[in-house]
Amino acid sequence: MRIAPSLLSADFTKIADAIAAIERGGADWVHVDVMDGHFVPNITWGPKIIGDLRKLTKLPFDVHLMISEPERYLHDFWEAGADGLTIHLEAGPHAQRTVTQIRQLGARAGIVLCPATPVAMLEDIIEDVDLVLIMSVNPGFGGQAFLPGSLKKLREARALINARNPRCLLEVDGGVGKENIAEVVAAGADTIVMGSSIFGTPDPAASIRELRALAARDGAGLP
């Protein structure tokens, strides 16, 4: 299982300390949410900030593009240091072409589904992606509650991945914490994005270790 702390919930006045803490805790990736105020009702950061953050850690950057027309910015984010670029299926009509462009850059190509988008929409693109991200909240803001229907979506996505693209990763983002991490792993997720459950605690490093232990406590293994 991979844990990818989301910098959206970190204190940017102490960002170097925050990244050092998640490294100590054994984080696998750093999740970076890019928002444009158009596709989602919030604005975060662009390639310049990601390029500056890249100097602070060697952990892989999992860059989630919550933006319209993501194809226009792929090279900029990859050049800034993104190891993976994940786009929303809902962001435009040419998702297959966009994920192909991401893979041509040499980055991991991911596709995201918002809560109202059914897993069946992945049928025609599943073989072309390296990662599927199931949003378990509506994108745009951190600290939201987990949507219970996301467990069913994770199980459906896991079945599709196992049948047609077993190398593909299955990520979940939104409202995951101590109370439900074992459930989402049991439903098939192998990569967990968490923000406030890590950065909203007094000791992010200890929280990562505790969350990893809780995910495995009830025998929830990866498929």
How would you describe this protein?
This protein has 223 residues and is α/β, with parallel strands linked by helices. The protein has one domain: Aldolase class I (TIM Barrel), CATH 3.20.20. The chain has eight helices and eight strands. It has helices spanning 15-24, 47-54, 74-80, 95-105, 150-164, 181-186, 196-199, 204-217, and strands spanning 2-5, 30-35, 61-66, 84-88, 108-113, 131-135, 169-173, 191-194. The chain has an eight-stranded parallel beta sheet with strand order 1-8-7-6-5-4-3-2. Helix 5 links the parallel strand 6 (131-135) and strand 7 (169-173). Helix 2 (47-54) runs parallel beside helix 3. The radius of gyration is 16 Å and the shape is globular. Residues 219-223 have low confidence and may be disordered.
Counted up, domains total 1
Classified by CATH, the class is Alpha Beta
- The count of strands amounts to 8
Beta-strand proportion: 15-25%
What separation lies between the terminal Cα atoms? 11 Å
Radius of gyration using CA atoms only:
16 Å
Mean pLDDT: 95
SS-based class: alpha/beta
> Which consecutive residue ranges, at least 5 long each, have pLDDT under 50?
219-223
What is the name of the CATH architecture?
Answer: Alpha-Beta Barrel
What is the makeup of the main sheet? Answer: 8 strands, parallel
Rough shape? globular
- Helix share of residues? 25-40%
Our count of helices gives: 8
Compressed to H and E, one letter per element, the order equals: EHEHEHEHEEHEHEHH
Q: How is the largest sheet built, in terms of strand order? A: 1-8-7-6-5-4-3-2
Would you tell me which CATH topology applies? TIM Barrel
Subunit arrangement of the protein: single chain
**CATH homologous superfamily heading:** Aldolase class I
